[in-house]
Amino acid sequence: MLPDNLISTKRIFKLLLVDDDTVTNRVLSVFLKKEKFKVFSAFSGVEAFNFLDKENIDIVLLDVMMPNMDGLTVLSHLREKYNTPVLILTSLSGHDVIEQAFLNGADDYIVKPFSPPQLLERIEVLLKLIPPGDNSTVYSSGDVKLLPNKQQFQVGEKVGNLSVIETRLLQHFVKNPDTMVPIEDLLRVGWSREEKYTVQEKEMLKLAINHLREKMEPDIDNPVYLPRVNGDGYIFHPVK
Prior knowledge:
Elements: H1 4-7, E1 14-18, H2 22-34, E2 38-42, H3 45-54, E3 59-63, H4 71-78, E4 86-90, H5 95-103, E5 108-111, H6 116-129, E6 139-141, E7 144-147, E8 152-155, E9 158-161, H7 164-175, E10 181-182, H8 183-191, H9 199-216, E11 233-234
Parallel strand pairs: 1-2, 1-3, 3-4, 4-5
Antiparallel strand pairs: 6-7, 7-8, 8-9, 10-11
């Protein structure tokens, strides 16, 4: 069931399901269509980009293990052009695969086998991250400004684009400057995780913070806005 804040819009969200397994693709497609999504099925990276170029896709569900062009390669190329939220579908739960997925720009992941309702829960989280049409909201702290609905930040004269997860994390930091924010809070803010976090999820957050540093910091080796902090949390310092 869609989140309450999205039901009222009566908008039909477009999902792109990229999985070369015809049975999996068909089963998930039928389930998601019953949940009132418009679903486009692609069975390869080439087909996926054909849909992305033609349709205004809201979320991409992307399998990792595909022939010719695997999901991580598809994701890397996708991020060169699109900020569309991407949920990785993988049977590989190893640290290296999940780390590479987030380095390539994934927003979340789910490990196979999973049930359709479990998948729907992850999709609902990403739907909440899709900004509304109003572009006027601005958050500021120190010399950092955030335009969440445009997924953009400004530091001094520098303007940059953010992913939906990076936007959500930075918005929380801007609202809580110079405060130690625990890992648990950031996972809840970024990915709506409520249960005790796993090693993979802690690494997922670390990678997202590093992405923010790479975009915002003048010197990534000596960060000032998101300095390194000992312990189980992160801090945002809005330098004037």
